[in-house]
Amino acid sequence: MLRTTTTTAVRVFKPVQVSTVARRMYSNTFSDKERAEENQYIRQKEAEQIKKLKEQLAQKEKEIAELKKNGDKK
């Protein structure tokens, strides 16, 4: 009868310590992404405001044209 022996290796994992340089790089990357998202949001809001102001300007120009037209008739 053959005897078999098995051994199991147990590996102990130590928590990985992240260097401060790696943390800064991750932090900067996250900050850059966050800043880019904020800038995109601001550009979108500004574009909406410009569109609204252009519509108001067009309406006022139309009113002025009507007033001039009515003023010339009198």
From TrEMBL:
Residue runs in coiled coils: 43-70
GO terms for cellular component: mitochondrion
Principal cellular location given in the protein's record: mitochondrion
Keyword Coiled coil part of the UniProt annotation: yes
Superkingdom of source: Eukaryota
GO terms for MF: ATPase inhibitor activity
InterPro entries, per the entry: ATPase_inhibitor_mt (IPR007648)
Keyword Ion transport applies: no
Record keywords, A-Z: Coiled coil, Mitochondrion
Location of the protein in the cell: Mitochondrion
Role description: Inhibits the enzyme activity of ATPase.
Family: Belongs to the ATPase inhibitor family.
Name assigned to this protein: ATPase inhibitor, mitochondrial
Organism annotation: Lobosporangium transversale
